């Protein structure tokens, strides 16, 4: 078979590891040929691709980002998009199937295209770990490691100056990064989109810690909505996709804490640092296993399915199961962490 791969949506550590394992497995186990469509769905729609050989994927498992490039091109709304044109492009260039690596938006497009006749399987990725039907997505562990290291550093400088430190991390609708990195770093308050908290309560936690001579650490997800507010803070315009560009809640929280407690407070926004760099060992292994499974799904002609992690096993899951809703932080997980706040 001649198989095309594409990476769509936000970049993520581990994408190259998927590409590497799929190509090597396909060549060695099935005698397949591979092409890589550039910049997500755009490359497929416009037949903009490159050939992928064993040499091209050599050593990729440790490399962050994606050698194929990515974009948020909509598979239907982009000029020339839609299943009919895509199927014609595949036939014209002798491509038998597509492996689409992406998050919720990408997989939703892949499912719709599969239902309309495009031979496509999916690989789930997002640093936010908010995709349903898989226990973990690659990129999440890397983001946690990066954020935890940054918070460890914030705590040492905070202790030196007796300041409260605020760390803003990614997480538009789900607070997994904030929860895991905050717990790992020993944060004294963690603020996530799933849980409304008053600033009075946050300040109480901060004051409890400061009164013991410690430097409080507050971790806040970018999508956190304080009690009494209507929506997440988005003072940076909109993305090309039309979504509000979140960010700034860390500065807002820091200002409120300093105003209400009198404790000098500083904010650090980690931003895209969380998505960059080389993947952790865990993410390299998970991404590699996803790539192998996705290639097997292609040979099963399991169109509209994706690779998924269930416990320690990589299994086949209908894309529909991943699109029923976001996987958000359960309240029992938040309450588990909240036991350690303040005090």
TrEMBL record:
Active-site annotation: 128
SUPFAM superfamilies: Phosphofructokinase
Binding of substrate, residues: 126-128, 163, 170-172, 222, 266, 272-275
GO cellular component, one term: 6-phosphofructokinase complex
Pathway(s) the chain acts in: Carbohydrate degradation; glycolysis; D-glyceraldehyde 3-phosphate and glycerone phosphate from D-glucose: step 3/4
GO MF annotation: an example: identical protein binding
Catalytic activity: beta-D-fructose 6-phosphate + ATP = beta-D-fructose 1,6-bisphosphate + ADP + H(+)
Site, as annotated: Important for substrate specificity: 105
Membrane-spanning segments: none
Co-factor requirement: Mg(2+)
Residues that coordinate or bind Mg(2+): 104
Limits of the Phosphofructokinase domain: 2-297
Subunit structure: Homodimer or homotetramer.
NCBIfam families attached to this UniProt entry: PFK_mixed, PRK03202.1
Family in the record: Belongs to the phosphofructokinase type A (PFKA) family. Mixed-substrate PFK group III subfamily.
Function: Catalyzes the phosphorylation of D-fructose 6-phosphate to fructose 1,6-bisphosphate by ATP, the first committing step of glycolysis.
Protein name: ATP-dependent 6-phosphofructokinase
